């Protein structure tokens, strides 16, 4: 028999303590932690963010409206109240980790670009042209320095 090496999959599981991003409803774009699993389609979430405008009250959320993130609050007891969830949220620095994630940065960048006015869009266009020109100039210099074959 051959030796088989079994590895645990790195799936994002629905579990107590998993941080979710709410995709639709009145709390769209906000983070919350799963506090209790109601059934196979719904979870009880609580989002005690440190920022006032990102707080999500405790409510039942359908999983179809949530995106599971890679962040998990370890040792979060089942059906924990808002106080313990808030303490563990701050201890694990969930807001800071989320702000550093690629998804949050891309969303913030897209939001910023969406809110540009006409003149700011023009400035972005000019800066992109300048950057492209510099890259082409450097590339041409490298090609010229390369030995001919």
TrEMBL record:
GO terms for molecular function: RNA binding; structural constituent of ribosome. It comes from the Eukaryota. Its main location: cytoplasm. The keyword Ribosomal protein applies. CDD domains: eL14 (cd23702). It holds the Pfam family KOW. InterPro entries: KOW, Rib_uL2_dom2, Ribosomal_eL14, Ribosomal_eL14_dom, Translation_prot_SH3-like_sf. Keywords: Cytoplasm, Ribonucleoprotein, Ribosomal protein. The keyword Mitochondrion does not apply. GO terms for biological process: ribosomal large subunit biogenesis; translation. Residues 13-40 form the KOW domain. GO terms for cellular component: cytosolic large ribosomal subunit. It is found in: Cytoplasm. SUPFAM superfamilies: Translation proteins SH3-like domain. Belongs to the eukaryotic ribosomal protein eL14 family. Component of the ribosome, a large ribonucleoprotein complex responsible for the synthesis of proteins in the cell. The small ribosomal subunit (SSU) binds messenger RNAs (mRNAs) and translates the encoded message by selecting cognate aminoacyl-transfer RNA (tRNA) molecules. The large subunit (LSU) contains the ribosomal catalytic site termed the peptidyl transferase center (PTC), which catalyzes the formation of peptide bonds, thereby polymerizing the amino acids delivered by tRNAs into a polypeptide chain. This is KOW domain-containing protein.
């Amino acid at each position: 028999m051959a030796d088989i090496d079994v590895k645990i999959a790195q799936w994002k599981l629905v579990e107590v303590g998993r941080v979710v991003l709410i995709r639709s409803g009145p709390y769209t774009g906000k983070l919350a932690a799963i506090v209790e699993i109601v059934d196979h389609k719904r979870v009880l979430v609580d989002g005690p963010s440190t920022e006032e405008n990102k707080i999500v009250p405790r409510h039942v959320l359908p999983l179809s409206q949530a995106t599971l993130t890679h962040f998990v609050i370890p040792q979060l007891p089942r059906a924990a109240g808002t106080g313990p969830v808030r303490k563990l949220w701050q201890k694990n620095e969930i807001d800071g980790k989320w702000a550093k994630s690629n998804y949050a940065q891309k969303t913030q960048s897209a939001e910023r670009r969406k809110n540009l006015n006409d003149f700011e869009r023009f400035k972005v266009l000019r800066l992109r042209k300048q950057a492209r020109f510099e890259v082409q100039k450097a590339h041409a210099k490298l090609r010229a320095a390369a030995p001919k074959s």
